[in-house]
Hints:
Layout: E1 12-13, E2 26-28, E3 31-33, H1 40-51, E4 56-57, H2 65-68, H3 73-88, H4 91-95, H5 108-111, H6 122-125, H7 141-160, E5 165-168, H8 190-200, E6 206-210, H9 217-223, E7 229-236, E8 262-267, H10 272-290, E9 294-299, H11 316-327, E10 332-336, H12 345-365
Parallel strand pairs: 1-4, 1-5, 5-10, 6-7, 6-9, 7-8, 9-10
Antiparallel strand pairs: 2-3
Amino acid sequence: MTMHGSRLGIPVVWHEDCLRHQPxxxxxxxxxxxxTEVPERxxxxxxxxxAAGAPVVPPRxxxxxxxLAVHDPALxxxxxxxxxxxxxxxxxxxxxxxxxxxxxxxxxxxxxxxPLRTPAAIHGRVGMFCYDTMTLVGPGSWEAIRxxxxxxxxxxxxxxxxxxxxxxxxxxxxxxxxxSGYGGSCYLNNAAIAAQALRAAxxxxxxxxxxxxxxxxxxxxxxxxxxxxxxGSVHVDPGAGWFPHYLGFAGERGDGQGLGANQNIPLAPxxxxxxxxxxxGQLCAQVRTAGADAVVLSLGVDAAAADPESPLEVxxxxxxxxxxxxxELGPVxxxxxxxxxxxxxxxxxxxxxxxxxxxxxxxxxx
Length: 366
């Protein structure tokens, strides 16, 4: 990565268990397709960052309490056991269903005012937790999900202990996972786990900045009523037909004590660097106003021009500039979210981290 002209000193927190998640595709509009959230994503990013000189450190295993601080125990228990239950139920061997996928969902349209009950059949129970058909579970998924969460929390702990920045190479990603449910190729919310870890370490106010191409509906929902964690997101407008469709609009500003601690900036398809960076700058200004002492950066690079999942057309230079803006805010724990174009993915992540490093250096120099 000599194109960046320096060595990347930000530690990369990584565990090979993150490769064990093999979703085996996704079911989109009723058809199973290959999908884009593949193990090679992590390999490409790791290769680019180590080539840039970044040190790699292992995550520290954490007590389950780290997960339960932001997630319902029922969700964590489901994810930890659902593959074993699925296999024991004969779904792969007897029915050829080699991945866990829901088919029925207990929405308000079904339940009306009646209570939610737990189905006896595992194929009915999955829809209690998974809100789409794209987010499949396989035999190694839980190990990867848990490793990704450990990477996120370890990165936060490094920052809390005085490291200016740390990067968690999380796979699967997490920002679409809410307190009690998962979807959007996300299972547990790595960014929320990191933010809560910073709070637990004594950092009074934390900001989560989400620059993934899609709105982090799960992170928003977890902190929506809290004043101590600001959530700001720039993403493609869900009103233009993009996932997560139902959430991510500008009028979502928080609730109760958290009113005003949530800011969404949806952008039209094709916005490009200038409009996207202007939105990132607006969010950074709000972080300063909020007086955040540390930042969690949900780094999705699927806003890239070449990415198959987004129409925003942001360049590598745009990501480097965004990293610099965010680096000027103070200490940052970076959590990997989306990014699916394998040919450019590593360069985009490296560009963002080099920008972050430069922004922090400029701020330190005064």
